[in-house]
Amino acid sequence: MTAPVMAPPAPGGVALPRGGRPRRRTTLSRRRTRLGVLMVLPAAVLLGLFFLWPLAQTIRMSFYDWPMLGEHTWVGLANYTSALGDEDFLAAVGFTLRYTLIATPLLFVVALVLALLVRGGSRAARGFQTIFFIPVVIGMAAASYLWMYLFQPDLGPASALGERAGLLDASENLFATFTSALVIVLAMVTWKVVGLQMLLLSSGLQSIPVEVNEAARIDGAGRWQAFRHITLPLLRPTLALVLVFSVAGSLLAFDQFFIMTSGGPNNSTITAVYQTYRTSFIQFELGAGAAMSVLLMVALAAVSALQMLLLRNTDNA
Amino acid sequence: MSATDVSALATPDTTSPREPRRRGRIPRTIGEVRASMPRLAWWVVCLCLAILFLYPLYVMLTQSLKAPAEAAAVPPTMFPQDWSLENYAALADSSSGISLLRSLGNSIGVSLSVTLLTTTVATLAGYGFAKLPFRGSGFLFFLALVAFMVPFQAIITPLFLTLRNLGLLGSLPGLVLVIATFSLPFGLFLMRNTFASLPGSLEEAAMIDGCGTLGAMRRVLLPVALPGVISTALLTFFTAWNEFFATLILLVDQKLYTLPVSLQMLASGQNNQLDWGVMQAGVTVTVVPCVVIYLLLQKYYVSGLLSGAVK
Description:
The complex is a heterodimer. Chain A is about 70% helix and about 0% strand. A two-stranded antiparallel ribbon of chain A has the order 1-2. By secondary structure, chain A is mainly alpha-helical. Classes of the chains: A mainly alpha, B mainly alpha. The interface between A and B is large, with 107 and 111 residues.
């Protein structure tokens, strides 16, 4: 697929003896420009066809009544107004926000604890870091099926352990109650993604010069004070990055709820992406789905803008 | 990031694991016992966490290796007594509708194609962006970064229609193109950084020695940039292997399903009777390749992630 692009390389390379010196230089630079265009071309084609075009289409479709089959008609902002007045969509947005507000600090605190535990670079520390990172390479879908099994009523090994510890009743279906279902999903997500944030944070921690902390300690700062007033502020760019990762990831949550709870009980764990999916591919209202997607993109753009702001502030401070 | 930095970091912190003075010695005085407490506590905490992180994987493996009767036992057995490969044999059996063996083949095909496509395209474009700038290339790179920020979940509907118009809907090549496009921005970013960090003198020297621009890239710069290429390939492979949402929507025919989506078919099972032994065998087949590749090529994977994310 990419092979044809390699086909027209300048024949003869640099040493084409035609013309005088200045002439040769211009042909060379022109050839380099052309080569640059050719090398970027496949990427540009892919992004244009499967990113820019669908992106533009999403925005266009959001102004139409667009069934899966049949004619589409212009409806203006109707899709937006009905999305913003749609109880299901608002409930999904509300749940997504709540999920994000719980998941983000949870992931952050666990990741920070892990990062502080594995810093130091001894062999044991590196070994533990490797172990804590393993779930990151597992897909969200596979992880969801695994954790779903862990907490199955009666059959689930984690449920059985929980009963033995006197924490829960193994015969109870934990996915049938909102709170317990959410707790299990959160535990699974933490297990699966916290390693990545740990890695980012620990590389951030390593980039802080030791002298700064030492100086603070010599000046009489306690360990907590040094952490609070030296480490955390210097860690701010990494913190912003980690925060954006988990906020964006949580706002886009789909796989785990689709698989583990199917949006239940009583549609209480349907996320924004899940609702978009249902609108587009179950109710086949593509226009309404597109409007929801646009709203989702706006939310994410706001998050990214916030990240820029946080990063910019560190440069000035 | 150098080794000296790392060891220096550890020194002011007494809870840190690196305390060469005490290593391997049994503490004798009360003072020594007290001084080694933080280290002991560190070990206990880390070991408990490690058990917590590995426990689900242990359950996955053991459950998949239990004989069917034991796999359905209530309460579940902690250690398998009746070892068997029956669950794995059941995966290959297509009489129940789908064969996981086939999905495995699809997964391998899709992941390798995506990896090859993305890595090639990203390496070429990364070089072009870093070393052969032209008018508008800065803007193009900016567009790629925008693609980085926009979740593809948000544009999946028109993507669906685009593929339908191209006649690629529900086909593996269509899926490959879509996943490749969405893993491309990160690859571009990584490869541009990789090539940009190589000194221009390297390329000049190669050209003086008689290489053309392409020759310089292939013979001199590419070998030096190889770690970057491997990182890109690894990250892309994991993304493609684990992709669920796009596969769920863009594929219709069950015969073409990749592993993560096939698990769904196993889960919705025959007459709601779920076989968790077979299911965990399927999960194991999905999970193990990623874990093995990660453990083998950890260095490249981690450095790729960090250079892509932190810069």
